Amino acid sequence: MAPQKQAQPPYQKDERVLCFHMEMLYEAKILDIKPADAGAEGWQYKIHYKGWKSSWDDWVPQDRVRKFTDENKDLAAQLTAQFKSLQATKSSAKQSAKKGPRASAVNNGSDMSSARGSEERTAGATTASGRGPRRARDYELEQEDNFHNRPSIKLPVPDHVKALLVDDWENVTKLQQLVPLPHAHPVEEILNDYLAHERPSRPEGSASMDILEETMAGLREYFDKALGRILLYRFERAQYHEMHQLWNSADDKHKSSVDTYGAEHLARLLVSLPELIAQTNMDQQSVNRLREELLKFTNWFSKHPSRYFSSVYEVPGPDYIEKARSA
After folding, report:
1. Do the Cβ atoms of 293 and 299 come closer than 8 Å?
2. How far is Cα 295 from Cα 74, in angstroms, rounded to an integer?
């Protein structure tokens, strides 16, 4: 029997590609190809980064290489913008630190992700405990080191989605209106639509397909766990209790948060994800892969606001308003 031919590599010699180097995605060219080392799947590619000296040429695994598509070029541009923003934030933080901790806290606050928490958070003061000033300072430095060592992720949200979130905040907290529920286009539908859009571009059974499916499953779980804890405004909590009753009823169509709530609350989750991921024990490589998947999803999601977001909020009756105020 003739030996089985090895599958062709997905990238070819001299092909123009994009390649990850650390957390950035750069334009590159494939100089050579060889099978992956024993025990590993796929291929290795010798990469030359455009505009870099040949001393930077390197053999990289297949999972660092991306096709030179418009979508991936947008991702590279976002990562570059994100890096510049992070550098500017660090510079601003250093300046704020010179002015004192209070100024630093104000400048580093996240407006979008903290709005719901601050709405219900009561004012309070915390004091550092210790046996003396040095002990308190040491404790604060240790806490700061722990904070900076946590996995970090920046997830840029397009301006028009931010504008929708601002409108959403105003509708609920100022105008006392509600997103109509059950939603016409629930989170489950949105995630399934994205999977249907993305699957054709990923080989079945590949690592990239596995990561895609794991990310969508993770979003479902995060949404379900986070909804009642951090994604609701106070005025929505009575509605949330009503949805709980629906989930426990004989209604087979609406049994959980992901098939009841929609784009508005999913967008709230996306702006909260960086803070949530920073509290996990994920290593930086896993965080980088997750960030790539979330950026792709956010880009796709932001292109369909008229399809998924509610155009009209509902005005609840006086009984609901009274119930919400007393909650």
Report:
1. no
2. 10
| Backbone angle region of 21, left / alpha / beta, with phi > 0 → left and psi within -120 to 50 → alpha | beta
This prediction's pTM: 0.65
Q: Would you call 176 exposed, middle or buried from its count of C-beta atoms within 10 A (0-12, 13-18, 19+)?
A: middle
Whole-number pLDDT of residue 77: 83
Interacting residues of 198 by C-beta distance below 8 A, sequence separation 6+? 212, 296, 300
- Average pLDDT per consecutive 10 residues, the chain (327 residues; last block may be shorter): 64 91 86 83 88 89 86 82 69 59 42 51 38 46 48 78 93 95 96 95 86 93 94 95 90 88 96 86 80 90 94 94 84
Instruction: State the pairing for strand pair 24-35/43-49.
Output: antiparallel
**Which of 143, 199, 181 is closest to 313 using CA atoms?**
181
Packing angle of the helix pair 263-277, 284-302 (nearest 10 deg): 160
- Of 84, 73, 226, the C-alpha closest to 154 is 84
**Which pLDDT score, from 0 to 100, does residue 28 have?**
93
In whole angstroms, give the CA distance from residue 102 to residue 207. Answer: 45
19/78 Cα distance (integer angstroms): 14
Confidence at residue 281, expressed as pLDDT on a 0 to 100 scale? 81
**What is the rounded CA–CA span in Å between residue 176 and residue 173?**
6
pLDDT value of residue 218: 92
Q: What whole-number distance in Å separates Cα of residue 244 and Cα of residue 182?
A: 11
**Residue 94 has what pLDDT?**
60
Contact 325, 185 (CB under 8 A): no
